[in-house]
Amino acid sequence: MGNKFIRGAFAAWVFGFVAATAAAQVNVSISFFHESLAPHGRWVSAASYGDVWVPGGVAAGWSPYVDGEWQWTDYGWTWASADPWGDIAYHYGTWVYSPPYGWVWVPGTVWAPAWVTWAYTDDYIGWAPVPVSFALTAHGYGGPAVAAPRASYVFVPARQFTGVRVASVRVPAPQVPTIYARAHRATAFPVTNGVVHNTGLPVARVEKVTGRKIELVRAEPEKLRVAPIPQGKSATYRVVAPKSERAAVIRQHERGGSQPAGSAEAATAHQKKNAPASTRPGTGTAQARPAPGESHEARGHQAKPEKKTEPVAPRTAPAPAESHAARGHEAKPQHDAAPPPSAEPRSAAVPPSHAPDPKAQHGNPHAAAPQHGNPHDKDGPGKPNRD
Question: What is the pLDDT of residue 157?
Answer without folding.
Answer: 98
